[in-house]
Design brief:
The structure holds two protein chains of two kinds.
Chain A: H1 15-29, H2 31-51, H3 81-88, E1 96-100, E2 106-108, H4 110-115, E3 119-126, E4 132-141, H5 142-149, E5 157-162, E6 174-178, H6 179-182, E7 188-193, E8 196-197, E9 207-209, E10 222-228, H7 241-246
Parallel strand pairs in A: 1-10
Antiparallel strand pairs in A: 1-2, 3-4, 4-7, 5-6, 5-10, 7-8, 7-9
Chain B: E1 9-14, H1 18-43, E2 47-48, E3 62-65, E4 77-80, E5 83-86, E6 93-96, E7 102-105, H2 115-142, H3 145-150, H4 159-170, H5 177-181, H6 185-207, H7 211-216, H8 219-224, H9 227-266, E8 268-273
Antiparallel strand pairs in B: 1-8, 2-3, 3-4, 4-5, 6-7
Chain lengths: 254, 277
């Protein structure tokens, strides 16, 4: 679902509150308020890193609780010929590149990823739109892949570059997490869902499951993983597609 | 002896010490931001569920839906439990997003509003409420303001006292003299419920929607019976708080806007002591 409705939205209902919200929207675009929001997000990050200091696992549910229907969101099929070719060949030529601040850059096929020790987890996906659904995910812990590559000094964030564009403007979806979330035991690169290979609508051939986080951080259609020391040089410098183009919060308060 | 009426002798007292005023205005601002941004977050998915599984296709406790958004004038249905009403043209705005299709919202946000920033504002304001409500609770107890001003006396809770107070409120009678210097029993009960029930539950149900927080405190899922139930409770509390806010502002107007605003800003309140002959 595209949430950038506001651009074409007309003033309806909410007569009095819209005035206030418009004021908020204006303030929002002014630098000091952006900085205030960024400060608040960093405060949330700091507080939650403290709360999660002993690295608790998020709740895992039983197979019986898996949602009968799991909504698809964002891109449901990447545009362009190159993804279409991958679909035709069953992702045989697809490779996950791991590069950036790593000792050993990697290029992993789907078979190589599947041959690594796997983790299966039934978890709840929470979308910032308000809905949630329960799914089973099969994949390899991101920490294992990062360990294969070996982090170099200065590594602070892991960036997920994707094969899809939410809008046909040339900007590919991307997301990023800090090393805490990256090395969380339930953070996996999922190639399967509910006992099947990952379907196209859910991010085939490989997606991120970062269970400590909100929906949009769970990047689909992974192309490459980049380890960086800062997020400023990517996109508009805010660490993700929604962050760049809709001012979503980077840490997301999860 | 003479029975001449004694003159009115105004007495100024410190009604609201600074912690009360700071807490009041910080939370007033924060709660207005929370209400507005909360409404916008709800707006994008106007359905309420119970348990953990809640999305399009799951039976909702209440929802605003449209069977076919592709129609020229899509019909809109409000569902609460088993009841359904056709609210086409009354509630709901359909927004056309071209390639991405059409979306049904309760109401359209301002034209330049970005959804992504909504949660940022919501969390920033939530920090103010989440941190200051427990602190304020401690302050009320330690300063004995809770026992002196907020807890109703046994006599006030009597049936007769309550009935009188409700009758006075219904007639919009304002209190005078020493009676105006105290909180009346309905006011005390309302403040206690907001402070010790609604605001803590709002914070806790909000935290239950966080994957990270519930990882550390899974008991939250037990308390609210799941994430979607917590969201539903969060919505109901917001509705109750909105009713409180509307009543609160209305009562301030009834009881004397200028005097009460002055006392919440400067702390000082003038008590008109009229001594009876």
């Amino acid at each position: 679902m595209n949430r950038k409705i506001s651009r074409r939205a007309v003033l309806g209902g909410l007569a009095s509150s819209s005035v206030l919200l418009t004021a908020c929207g204006r303030l929002d675009n002014a630098t000091p308020f952006r900085q205030l929001l960024a400060l608040s997000d960093r405060f949330t990050l700091g507080a939650e890193r403290l709360i999660l200091a002993n690295r608790p696992l998020v709740r895992e549910l039983s197979v019986a609780q898996i949602s009968a229907v799991f909504p698809t969101n964002g891109t449901t099929k990447p545009r362009g010929d190159s993804y279409a070719r991958h679909l035709d060949t069953g992702f045989a030529d697809w490779r996950l590149r791991v590069h950036g601040l790593v000792e050993r850059p990697l290029s992993l096929s789907l078979a190589a990823l599947r041959s690594l020790p796997s983790r299966t987890q039934v978890t709840m996906h929470s979308c910032d739109e308000g809905w949630s659904a329960i799914g089973q995910w099969h994949g390899v812990q991101l920490s294992r892949v990062l360990a294969l590559a070996g982090l170099r000094p200065g590594a602070r964030f892991v960036v997920f570059h994707c094969m899809d564009q939410l809008e046909a403007d040339g900007n590919f979806y991307y997301e990023s997490v800090d090393l805490f979330d990256a090395f969380h035991p339930q953070t996996i690169l999922a190639y399967g869902m509910n006992g099947q290979p990952l379907p196209v609508g859910y991010g085939a051939p490989l997606r991120l499951r970062v269970e400590t986080q909100i929906g949009y951080k769970n990047a689909k259609y992974l192309d490459r993983i980049e380890v960086v020391d800062g997020l400023g040089a990517l996109g508009k410098g805010r660490g993700g597609w929604w962050e760049d183009f809709d001012h979503a919060v980077w840490y997301a308060g999860q | 002896m003479t029975s001449t009426a004694q003159p009115v002798r105004p007495r100024t007292e410190l009604r609201h010490p600074w912690p009360v005023r700071v807490w009041h205005w910080a939370n007033a601002g924060a709660i207005v931001i929370l209400m507005l941004t909360g409404l916008l977050i709800f707006d994008i998915h106007p359905s309420l569920y119970w348990g953990d599984d809640g999305h399009a296709g799951v039976a909702a406790l209440a929802s605003l839906t449209s069977p076919d958004l592709a129609q020229a004038v899509p019909s809109v249905e409000l569902q609460i439990g088993r009841w359904r009403w056709d609210v086409t043209g009354v509630i709901g705005t359909v927004v056309d997003e071209g390639d991405s299709g059409k979306y049904l919202l309760v109401a359209a946000p301002p034209a330049d509003w970005e959804f992504g920033a909504t949660r940022g504002w919501h969390f920033m304001a939530a920090w103010i409420v989440g941190l200051s409500v427990p602190l304020y609770g401690v302050y009320l107890i330690v300063s004995r303001r809770l026992s002196r001003r907020l807890l109703p006396t046994r006599a006030e809770l009597g049936r007769r006292s309550l009935a009188t107070e409700i009758w006075q409120h219904l007639r919009l009678r304002r209190a005078h003299g020493e009676a105006a210097a105290r909180y009346n029993v309905l006011q005390k009960l309302a403040y206690l419920v907001v402070l010790f029930v609604l605001l803590p539950l709002a914070v806790l149900s909000g935290l239950t929607m966080s994957n990270a927080i519930t990882a550390q405190f899974p008991v939250l899922f037990v308390l609210f019976d799941g994430r979607q139930s917590a969201r539903t409770v969060h919505f109901l509390i917001a509705t109750l708080l909105s009713l409180f806010l509307a009543t609160h502002v209305f009562q301030v107007c009834v009881a004397g806007f200028r005097t009460l605003m002055r006392s919440m800003i400067t702390g000082r309140f003038v008590v008109e002591t009229r001594l009876r002959p």
